[in-house]
UniProtKB/TrEMBL annotation, chain A:
Its EC number is 1.13.11.3. It is an enzyme of class 1 (oxidoreductase). GO terms for molecular function: ferric iron binding; protocatechuate 3,4-dioxygenase activity. NCBIfam families: protocat_alph (TIGR02423). It comes from Histidinibacterium aquaticum. CDD domains: 3_4-PCD_alpha. Pfam families: Dioxygenase_C (PF00775). SUPFAM superfamilies: Aromatic compound dioxygenase (SSF49482). This is Protocatechuate 3,4-dioxygenase subunit alpha. Belongs to the intradiol ring-cleavage dioxygenase family. Residues 26-192 form the Intradiol ring-cleavage dioxygenases domain. The gene is pcaG. The lineage of its organism: Bacteria, Pseudomonadati, Pseudomonadota, Alphaproteobacteria, Rhodobacterales.
TrEMBL record, chain B:
Coiled coil: none annotated. The lineage of its organism: Bacteria, Pseudomonadati, Pseudomonadota, Alphaproteobacteria, Rhodobacterales. It comes from Histidinibacterium aquaticum. The gene is pcaH. Keywords: Dioxygenase, Oxidoreductase. This is Protocatechuate 3,4-dioxygenase subunit beta. It is an enzyme of class 1 (oxidoreductase). Residues 80-108 form the Intradiol ring-cleavage dioxygenases domain.
Amino acid sequence: MVQPLTRLRETPSQTAGPYVHIGLMPTYAGNPGSVEKEVGTSPITEAAKGERIEITGTVSDGTGWVLRDAMIESWQADAEGLYAGQEGADPGVPGFCRFGAHAETGLWTLSTIKPGTVKLPDGRVQAPHIALWIVARGINIGLMTRIYFEDEEEANAADPVLMRIEQRPRVETLLAKKTGDGAYRFDIRLQGEGETVFLDL
Amino acid sequence: MTDAGRLIPRDRTAHPDPYDPGYKTSVLRSPNQALLSMESTPTEEWGPTFGHDQLGPLDNNLILNWTKGEAPAVGERILVHGHVLDELGKPVPHTLVEVWQANAGGRYRHHKDTYFAPLDPNFGGCGRTITDENGYYQFMTIKPGAYPWPNRGNDWRPAHIHYSIFGHSFGQRLISQMYFEGDPLMRYCPIFHTVKDRGQLDSLVAPLDMTMSRPLDYLTYKFDIVLRGRRQTMFENKPEGL
């Protein structure tokens, strides 16, 4: 016999379902005033330091059909690579945002600042990136991925997560494409051809 | 948070498989490729924080919050309470818990919900609260009704309340659903049964808690939630580790 392990197991995930927005983004769901202050309406305040950028994209399923009912959350560091709560972090960057796709076009937009490189405790450096978490009807457990930037070639080449992707062409699925001054495009494919790399970190 | 610390890797066997053909929408919305697993980084070890200044006085009372206290929602009055813990059994204090649900007739206040059970003019279905220093939370609501949904020919969701929990780091992010003890529809629900482990299924079902029910006022259900934990950092950050 051995001593019992007194560990708990994580509560199992369940899909957020088709009506996730009434709970988490009530104004987007058409129920403004459900709560006075919604959380995650913007990842930055006007005072945020750094380069303003706008990322636009879609989420599509295994047939290429663009989802209208996903909710995306983003989490990022400030321009110096520090997260809200870390010592010296820019108070203008709460870093967290929630957004959904436009009902007709299926396009979502994230207006933010470009994050800085993030240091790991062992000295390695992560390239600028924005973490995403995607939930929707049909998604049984939230999908974690990251937006990197195609114009950060040097940093991307040394990024610990990107380096771990064995099939090099799949790295492309995590790179936002520059489409203009401060403008990027990032499409998320849940399944099939060009499937986005999803993470378990 | 002063000491972030590595997150305990997620035990994926505790969770549903992303692909579960019984739940038809998952067929096209589940990745074919394996997830890329790695040790957590500061990105997952830090997360947003929310304070009480963000909450309104009725945010944790779904019976009254839609009408700002003017008129109560129709239905079975219940208190739902419990603790948010991590895998090591430690309470998760000061974390945001958000809930949403259908009304007593199984109808959501959402333009895409066309079920003919009527809306309750006094019920919105959206609530939230922050756990106290012991990881404890509670909210008042009405028990949601079951409702049909287009999946297989005659699928009905058991009564449930959707939960969204943050923890203290983005890597702990979790959305799930709470079910009610004794509901026979649980047996038939393909979403509930995306969880294959019996013990894990049981952990989604809230027992009736008569001890905390208030005579002549409300019944109580107890629902505890477990989030990912963090390892101790005594031997962390050594260069020989990957």
